[in-house]
Structure formats: C-alpha cells, structure tokens
Amino acid sequence: MPYSKKPLLALSRCTSLLVLLGGIFSSVNAYGVDEEFINYDQNEIAIVNVTLIDGTGAPPKTNQAVLIKSGHIAAVDSAKDIKISQTTTVIDGTGKTLIPGLVMMHEHMFYPTGNAHYTEMLYSFPRLYLAGGATTVRTAGTTAPYGDLNLRDAINSGKTMGPDIDVTAPYLNGPGLPILKIKSLRDAQDAKNMMQYWDQEGVTSYKAYMHIHQDELAQVLSSAHQRKRKVTGHLCSITYKEAAELGIDNLEHGFFAATDFVKDKKKNQCPAAELHQSLVDLDINAPEVEALISLLVSKNVALTSTLTVFETFTQGRPKAYPLALEALIPQVREQYETRWQKIAQQENATWPIVFKKMMQLEKRFVEAGGTLMAGTDPTGYGGVIAGFSNQRQIELLVEAGFSIQQAIKIATLNGATFLERDTKIGSIEAGKQADLVLIDGELINDTSAIRDMAVVFKHGVGYNVSKIVQQTKSVVGLH
Questions:
Q1: DSSP readout, 178-209?
Q2: What is the spatial distance between Cα 166 and Cα 77, in angstroms, rounded to a whole number?
Q3: Which sign does the torsion angle of CA 248, 399, 104, 310 carry?
Q4: pTM for the model
Q5: Is the pLDDT of residue 38 over 50?
Q6: What domains are defined for the chain?
Q7: Is residue 97 a contact partner of residue 463, using CB atoms and an 8 Å limit?
Q8: What range(s) does the Amidohydrolase-related domain occupy (predicted)?
Q9: In terms of C-beta density within 10 A (0-12 exposed, 13-18 middle, 19 or more buried), how is residue 18 classed?
C-alpha cells in the first residue's frame, strides 16, 4: 500500500483545533482562578472583633484581631491593642469565628460513581475542599497519580484554585482487592521498584493497603524512611500491633480497620468478613485494647480519624448536608439516597454499636497521649463529599467528646505537624502563612456553625465560599 499523508493531515487539523479551543477556553478562565471567587486580595488585611480558635488547643478567645500582610500573619492580639494603618482593609468579625485552614489527612480526588468504580473529580473536588475550609490536604491514596501531581502543580502555580496537596503514591497493596485501578504487588522488590519510580515523579507520601504482606510493608517502610518520607496504612492483612512494631508512621480510620481483635487471624491474610463482628463483640475496656493503645502511643504512631465515611454505614445518622447533595449529579445522588434509605430501614443493625465504640477509642487514644488527625475519605457509597465532609468531621469529633478547640487542633495543627509543616501552617500565630477560615457564627456556642464558612483565606487571599459552592452544583460525579 502506498504511503498516504491523509492521516497526518487529519491529525494536524485535530491538533490545530485543540490548540484553538485551548486558546478560547483559557481566554474565559475555564481553568484559571476567576476573580469573581476572590473577596480579598489586598496586601494588608485585618480581621477584628472576632472569636479566635487558634489551632493550638488553647481555649477560644473573644474580641481578637488578626493582621495579615503579604500573605502571612503579621500579628495576633486583642482587638483593642492591634495596630492597624489607615490603608489596611478591615473585616469586622463581630459574631464570627476565625480558625486555621484545615489540614485534612485522608482525602481523595476521586468519588464512587457505582459498580465499585471511582471517577476522578479533578475539577470539582479541589474547589470544594477549599470551600470547605481545607487549605492543605493529603491524598491518602490515588488511582490517578499523574492527575494528582499535575493538579498539585497547577494549584501551586496559580492556574487553578484548591488546597495545597501532599500527594500520596498509588496504593501499595497485595493481591485480593477487586478494584481494577489498584495494582497488586508481586513481592517486596516490586514494592521497592514502585516506590523508587513514584518518588522520582514527585510524590511525597506513601500508603500501604489492605492486602499487603509483612515483608512488603517492611520494604515500604525502609524505602520511605531512607527518602525521609512517611507511610500511612489502611490495613487488614497486617494488624496494628504488627505494623507499629515494623515502624509505620500512621494508621488510617482510627480503630475501624484494626484486625488485632479477630480470633485466630492468620498471618498476611485479610479477615474482611470477620473484622466488623470482632468490633461488635469487642470489650473496649479489655486489657488487650489498653495494651494496643499504649503500644501505638509509645511507637509514636499517629491515627487518622475518618468518622465521616463510617457514619454513612450507620443506621440512624443524618443524611449528607443538603448543599452537598445539590453538588451531586442526579444519578449518583439517587444511588446515595437509595442506599441511605435501605440502611435507615435495617433491623438489628450493628454499625451503631461499632460507631459509638470507635468514637470512644479515638478519645481514649488522645487521652493516653496519642496523636489523632482528621480526614474524611470520600469513598463508601457516595455520602462523603469533598469540602462538606471536612466540616462534618469537626462536628463528629465534638460528638465523640472532644472540645471544639481540641477538634480544631486535630483537624489543623496535628496534621501540619505530621507533615512537618507546622512552622508554616496549622495554627494562627504570627509569622505563619495566612491560611484561615472565617465562619459566620460563634463556633464555641454552636458546632453546626462550622457549616457557615464565609471566607477561606489561603496564602492571604480570601475566597468566597458561597460562590465556589454555587459554581460546583450538580457536577460531582461528572468531573
């Protein structure tokens, strides 16, 4: 067959069309940060007469003022003592609460869209995370690593809006999980090779997953720590005790994923069917529970609380926020509401028993000196929606018995400290980055006020929450 130039000509025309369309889209800010979403971008801003929860765990303070200069916190003082120049933009915080930007530690850029399939939300989720008060997130596992890496870089360069992202590599998992987008490790050497590749590509965290074997996890920890990276894990085949003794840095889902209490658990095998019942039967005052908590604390293993995702399986719990449901496309909203209704109608449900116990254990872990962080995990069957669930996690921590200042610290400074960014973010202190959330309402009197975020400041730029949320209506599940 003689050589033809027609395919190349067609390709050239397609490429030209894409370039042309790209120019059109960029001219209308389809990808960049539109100024309509920014309320404040002045060099010097003062928020005065506000109630301050600073993220350190200290009691809230009323009638406070925070001065922002060049994207950083210049001063924190009482409103009557703060020094403000005539050129400063002043925001009256009367009746409002100011907290640090949330540092959320178990987030994803994907969402369950049915049939065990997860679809990337690289457009809607970064915006919703930001609108939900999250100025820094860790993607605790990814099915589209280049999507997460490129999104992180686009946000850092100002091409789009969203939180700062600590990108976790693809899941490090053994065989047995029926999710098509997740690789199964062949052996410990395969784990090492995989980590070396993704480290070169720019990831900054790693996550071990449910079916990983002990020799593979040992290799993961060795390789990560040599690179001065940290490893978290949603485990099942390996118990919390085994992981702690191997040197893991972080465990996901509080105690919900602990297989330590499964009778006759076999090494390197995930007893998925027995896990839930073991927690139903668990005596949380038993010596083995206290021993596990003591071990985790002594080994400095942090836990990430993700009460939001487990709430969705628990009978008697409220639906997702109305605004969150409005963000869903009709098909996935229907899926969620149908499943929620089935759960609500269950007889002899056991999830309420487990949910209450796990809340108590998270509280006990902190009282024993453990480090608890906050995440949401937008998986399950669709009730955990970026941004809105950040707010719900705060409410659930308070329901678990934490004071509002403790809950805010768990969701801010604790995560920042784990990420080794606490000199820059995580609390409202002079010299730190101006990542702040201004809430319409007194959070110290009403935890549900967390839902009324008005402005989220990231690097000193104040974003209008309402406008971002309205822009992302009915697109979650699509993009």
A1: --TTSPBP-SHHHHHHHHHHHHHHT--EEEE-
A2: 31
A3: positive
A4: 0.93
A5: yes
A6: 38-100+427-465 (2.30.40.10), 102-418 (3.20.20.140)
A7: no
A8: 97-453
A9: exposed
